């Protein structure tokens, strides 16, 4: 029998790997529902759904290796990043999924709450929070919604050479801002933005992508800390926020 590997474990979700099968156990069955529906609609490589028995979703492994990990340089080639950009463009040009996404007003309210929490708890210097809050305002504008992955972290994209072999973890998929996907993918890997956009093509707004870098790092930090992750690890969210101070 294959060994059981714990891939991710926190209070909301546990993902286990047994051989070529991933078992995702989620306390909210709506997440698996969105994931299954999104993968069926997305015109890009996705894992195969093997079976679903709430609260467990079983999916097959995708070939290749992750595009990279947060906090370490990506070993993938520029061609691989460009190929990812092309695949993301195909997703963004697909028909919208038939459920509601998060709007700008909800994003703005969450930014207010999380910045207040960061200040009240002394998690980061007030100047770092204030500067990144100013930058993050650039993402708070009305956007034309597209089909977004919604959590397009670098670890969720798999490549084999310069070919995209699969995109995983679709539970946040929804109509949303295209620049959000591009920002999450390059968070902490800003040097790869040119390669990504070479494949993505025209229409990307670099200023909005940079704004989403700050916004994402600000609003994600409390959740990460509360679920056993370290946003202050090298190359992670706090370094992203500090880097914006050097840009000032």
Automatic annotation (TrEMBL):
Keywords: Kinase, Transferase. One of its GO terms (molecular function) is kinase activity. The keyword Kinase applies. InterPro entries: AGP_Transferase, Aminoglycoside_PTrfase, Kinase-like_dom_sf. The keyword Transferase applies. Gene3D superfamilies: 3.90.1200.10. Coiled coil: none annotated. Residues 25-212 form the Aminoglycoside phosphotransferase domain. It comes from the Bacteria. Pfam families: APH. This is Predicted kinase, aminoglycoside phosphotransferase (APT) family. It comes from Actinokineospora terrae.
